[in-house]
Amino acid sequence: MQAIFENLPLWWQGMGMTLLLTGVVTLIGLPVGILLAGMRVSPVAALRVVAAVWTEVARNTPLTLVFFFTAFVLPKLGFIFDFTLGAILALTYYTSAFFAEAVRSGINSVPLGQAEASRSIGLGFGQTMGLVVLPQAFRSVLPPIINVIIALTKNTSVAMGFFIFVLTSVAQRLSTSYGDQALQIFIGVALSYLIITVPLGQAVDYLERKWSVQR
Amino acid sequence: MSGSVLFDAPGPNAIRRSRILSIVFAIATVVLLGLAAYQLWLGGAFYQDRWDIFGRPEVWFAARGLMAGLGTTLSIAGIAAIGAMILGIIFSILRNAASRWVRIPTTIVLEFFRGMPVLLMMLFILIVFASGTYWSVVWALVVYNGAIIGEALRAGMKSLPKGQRESGLAIGLTPLRTTLAIELPQALRIMLPIILAQLIVLLKDTSLGYIVGSPEILRIGRQLVDFYDREGGPYALSMFFVLLAIYLALNLSLSAIVRWLHKRVSRPRKGGPNLDGTKTEAVPVSTQAMRQQAGRDPLADSTRYPGAGMEGGGG
Questions:
Q1: Chain A closest CA to B157's CA: distance in Å?
Q2: Pick from B22, B43, B288: CB nearest A45
Q3: Residues with Cβ within 8 Å of residue B250, at least 6 apart in sequence
Q4: Which CATH superfamily is domain B65-266 in?
Q5: What is this structure's pTM?
Q6: Which pLDDT tens digit goes with each residue over A197-211?
Q7: What domains lie within chain A, and their CATH numbers?
Q8: Is the ipTM of this structure higher than 0.90?
Q9: ∠A93-A96-A98 over CA atoms, to 5°?
């Protein structure tokens, strides 16, 4: 712990980058995920196929490989950009698929009768989704979305292997210079992650309790 | 809820519109992909010299070839999967222990393990225990996934009817035997799809060994790229595609197995025959379940559901 307190600026740097990546990727990835989920249940076959391929490929590719692509392959093809931007790209691509799945599972959790009823009073696809299904899906969708954000917070650590200084890099750097305090340093950094993830997890529990509806 | 309820069976106009939209969108996608491919082609991605190394046996079968890397990946995943299952079962038992002195520390430790990134745990084990890269990856995956599987199993046990545990205790089993012989097998069955999905995540997470430095397939791929080209690396893209194909093949086939199992597990269980020798049928509890009873008209059958009181019961 001592080592961390002595290097607070370093800790802040890592913490800031972790928070930045988490925030930016959530802001971009969530709309993309909602769009993908909407495409996946839409009447147009081509949209369904594209969304399905996107989510399936992204979910079954290791995040490290996606980073490998943005950090090593794209620059070789002539797309040269900041490593932070590359990390945001990789994380957004990977996480959007999980957002999409969370939203889709929320849409699926709305009882069939709701959609049937709105169809039978003559609402179209857009109205059924916008007025009946999505508002109800929202409450069951928020907890899984927060869970995706928690996973995202932890996934930002992968950026460490690709030239970005996140919280995990703080642990690595400090433990090389303060070899005798390695244990405390790692516990401290793990606690730093828990500072972010535990409140989010509490929010999930709270929302699930508050919004659980008897159906 | 299946997507098809969200919109009508389309009429001729809607079919035409949807088909036009589909075609427009498909063309747009193809054009985009084509442009990307053309760009790659201009960059020389499809030239023979970008792919020729994959025809050489030493790239695949040398001591530090791709197959060796794949072997490392799979062996890490295999050992870690078994370890995580065992640890998960132990965690779930400790987490449900009667004594508060066991339960609460276990809960805290589990929260701790689940809240930190696997990569941090790998580095921790690597640096503090100096266990070598291979075993640090294995151990981190065991502990992390063990904590997650433990939570899943606990949730599964909690979802069981209370009578299961009570009847176990009532016939004189010790609490531990009740958990092991009655609750755990059922929890495993309920949670099997979730646990298997987690094992796929575990397989993907072996790639973090790239950062820690264990010789799994991604790391080997990178080394091969660097080895075969020191001036500019024309093999990076082709290596990426090869690795992507390998990972997708592995994970998609595992996902297919998981989906098949999920269907099997979520299918209502069939009981034995009725007293009069007729087959028992699961009672569909939703409109969707009714639909899924293939080839039967739900309305014609509804009189035979328990409580409808038309047939059988009286005898």
A1: 19
A2: B22
A3: B203
A4: MetI-like (1.10.3720.10)
A5: 0.81
A6: 889 888 888 888 887
A7: 2-211 (1.10.3720.10)
A8: no
A9: 120
